[in-house]
Write a structure and sequence with these properties.
This protein is 19% helix and 38% strand. The chain is of the alpha+beta class and 254 residues long. It has a domain of 53 residues. Strands 5-1-2-3-4-6 form a 6-stranded mixed beta sheet. A hairpin with a 5-residue loop joins β2 and β3. The longest helix is centred in the first third of the chain and has 28 residues. The radius of gyration is 34 Å and the shape is elongated.
Length: 254
């Protein structure tokens, strides 16, 4: 880093800090307005009109010509002669089953030791080795003029023990039908209990043939799945560190 670059980097850090503080202040103002009342839930609205909504674009296979069978009561893709009750069109509802049971354990230990020792001398050098006492008054041994010693010891230990168990159900809305027939899902759910709101969001792409006969689908069959489960309220407020502490943790280098 050159001296000319330091003012620019300091300016960027100052701007980033001001933005973080501003966001924290807005969050604090929102919490202050909700003091004594439960968090306000978001109104029900059309997901496609919300800010940041982008239609999904995925690689599509070449179009296929539908095969018609005259005098046949069977409809291709249907599971019965009657109307299929599964979600197939934009606006239809489908129940998503989220059952995540994940467990992982990892232990790692590393030890490294290194010793180096180098020695160099000049016992004979055209007779000039006898002049060392003239320039170096202290006792000099030509056989051991230079000597280096180095020792390094590194030891590291890591341990991870993780277990997650989540079981949820959420009704999602079909927001888009892709050209190959796959469905784009988008669903959200908000529950408020004792001044604490829990919010569940799920997005992704599914195949119509993966939908069960009772109009449900497991989360493991959702492509590009985005599952968000969190909350806000009094309990979450206490469990989270203050925004000043979070900013300090981001910029503190040690």
């Amino acid at each position: 880093m050159t001296p000319a670059q330091m003012p620019k980097i300091a300016l960027r850090i100052a701007l980033l800090t001001s933005v973080c503080v501003g966001l924290g202040a807005c969050n604090a103002l929102t919490r202050a307005t909700e003091a004594g009342s439960a968090p306000q839930q978001a109104p029900i609205s059309n997901p496609t009109t919300q800010a940041g909504y982008v239609p999904v674009s995925m690689p599509m296979p070449p179009p296929e010509t539908a095969q018609r069978q005259p005098n046949s009561l069977w409809r291709s893709g249907s599971r019965a002669f009657f109307k299929d009750q599964r979600a197939t069109r934009v606006g239809d509802l489908i129940t998503v089953l989220v059952e995540i049971s994940d467990q992982g354990k990892l232990d790692n230990s590393t030890t490294r030791t290194r010793n180096n020792s180098d020695a160099a001398g000049m016992p004979k050098f055209l007779g000039y080795e006898t002049l060392l006492n003239k320039y170096l008054p202290d006792a000099v041994t030509p056989e051991a003029l230079i000597e280096f010693n180095a020792q390094t010891n590194n030891s590291g230990t890591g341990s991870i023990d993780r277990k997650e168990d989540i079981k949820l159900k959420i009704a999602a809305v079909v927001t888009q039908v892709l050209p190959n027939g796959n469905l784009v899902l988008r669903g959200s759910q908000q529950v408020t209990v004792n001044f604490e709101m829990r919010e569940l969001q799920i997005h992704g792409i599914i195949r119509p043939e993966d939908i069960s006969s009772i109009n449900t689908i497991g989360y493991e069959k959702i492509a590009e799945a985005r599952i968000i489960y969190g909350g806000r309220g009094q309990m979450t407020d206490v469990q989270q560190p203050r925004y000043g502490q979070q900013i300090y943790d981001i910029f503190f280098p040690f």
